[in-house]
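Figure 3 (text version): structure tokens given as input.
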């Protein structure tokens, strides 16, 4: 691989997208088609899929096997875990999270979608908008995924009719009015045959919009990151042992919001101490400017006490702070949440302890109705809760910054991750 090609690949913009849909809507087949038609799979992978397809006796290559990697998935013909795949085109790099459609795997969908720029919601053209469609759209809205592409699949099974596409499009638009979703695109496709996935369909001349791959390559995601409020959680303090660097003290981490420049005045939380940025260091050397989501090392002009979990900000946009936090929570574990229970809360690089104070309400993810008075939160439940931390937490709302507005809860006894939360 040439040095120019390698540098070009590293500099390419990365788009993360997740798939969601009901069982048998064709999520895994769609991803297989994307990989196959964009020439993103190797010959030995294709040969393996062809051999596996022969065993099923269908008489044709099953592209879904490219993502359904678990043995249980292949035997049942469904997706259970979150399958991640990586591919690139000349325009972008992609990370795909293929998530389950079953209601009992809500936690998997939340996990796969938590970092996505785009959600692909698949709808079977024969069935139209169904209960699971509402659930998947709600979760995409809850996780503040900026862009939704509704893929109306299996158009070949409804004779590629425009009126079928338009009816489903209108039905979904009616759902979207109840949700916090602003950018929705619709594409009629046949994942099995490849229509409008990578190549334009010859069977749907009435559709003059872009193909799915064109949308994924060109949808604008740069403005999805909060560049107004500077946020730099300190991950690691660097003190080189070599004599020539004896006076260097750097703070390494990833910028989770905003832009930092050499010479900027900054404040460190929770101490409130201030200083100025002396240097910004990256792997290649010094830079004058850095922005989210770059990983950098900052050095400051003043020798102040900073450790892992501290937050470096600029005064142009202060975070909220407090110990009583309200959030939407998705419970991940078979062991139910304990009201009044103590958990470890991880927020960016900061670890602290908390107590669950109240369950305000649960959400029926299939109808979006609030369930009042039910304090029992178990596996895959989504609820609005209030918790109290042992010390003040500096945070943003999840709507404002998906990184500094999210937390995970860990069971102190088992060290299992039991929940993910979006701060309101």
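Below: residues designed for each position.
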């Amino acid at each position: 691989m040439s040095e120019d090609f390698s540098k070009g690949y590293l500099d390419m913009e990365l788009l993360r997208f997740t798939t969601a849909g009901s069982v048998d809507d064709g999520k895994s087949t769609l991803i297989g088609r994307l990989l196959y038609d964009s020439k993103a799979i190797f010959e030995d992978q294709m040969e393996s899929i062809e051999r596996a397809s022969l065993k099923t006796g269908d008489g044709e290559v099953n592209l879904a096997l490219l993502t359904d990697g678990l043995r249980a998935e292949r035997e049942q013909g469904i997706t259970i875990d979150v399958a991640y795949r990586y591919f690139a085109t000349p325009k972008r790099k992609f990370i795909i999270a293929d998530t389950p459609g079953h209601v009992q795997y809500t936690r998997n969908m939340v996990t796969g979608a938590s970092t996505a720029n785009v959600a692909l919601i698949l709808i079977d053209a024969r069935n139209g908008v169904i209960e699971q469609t509402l659930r998947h759209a709600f979760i995409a809205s809850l996780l503040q995924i900026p862009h939704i592409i509704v893929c109306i699949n299996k158009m070949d099974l409804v004779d590629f009719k425009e009126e079928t596409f338009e009816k489903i499009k209108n039905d979904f638009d009616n759902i979207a009015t109840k949700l916090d979703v602003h950018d929705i695109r619709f594409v009629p496709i046949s994942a099995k045959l490849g229509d409008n996935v990578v190549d334009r369909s010859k069977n749907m001349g009435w559709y003059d919009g872009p193909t799915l791959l064109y949308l994924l390559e060109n949808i604008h995601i740069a403005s999805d990151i909060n560049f107004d409020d500077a946020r730099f959680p300190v991950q690691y303090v660097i003190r080189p042992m070599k004599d020539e660097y004896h006076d260097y003290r750097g703070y390494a981490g990833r910028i989770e919001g905003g832009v930092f420049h050499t010479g900027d005045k900054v404040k460190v939380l929770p101490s409130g101490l201030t200083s100025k940025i002396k240097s910004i260091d990256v792997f290649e050397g010094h830079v004058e400017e850095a922005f989210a989501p770059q990983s950098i090392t900052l050095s400051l002009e003043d020798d102040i006490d900073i450790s892992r979990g501290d937050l470096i900000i600029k005064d142009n946009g202060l975070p909220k702070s407090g110990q009583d936090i309200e959030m939407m929570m998705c419970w991940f574990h078979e062991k139910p949440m304990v009201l009044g229970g103590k958990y470890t809360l991880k927020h960016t690089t900061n670890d602290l302890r908390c107590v669950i104070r109240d369950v305000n309400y649960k959400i029926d993810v299939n109808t979006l109705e609030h369930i009042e008075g039910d304090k029992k939160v178990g596996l895959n439940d989504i609820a609005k809760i209030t918790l109290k931390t042992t010390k003040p937490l500096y945070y943003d709302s999840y709507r404002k910054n998906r990184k500094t507005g999210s937390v995970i809860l860990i069971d102190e006894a088992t060290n299992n991750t039991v929940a993910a939360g979006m701060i309101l």
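The two ends are 46 Å apart (CA to CA).
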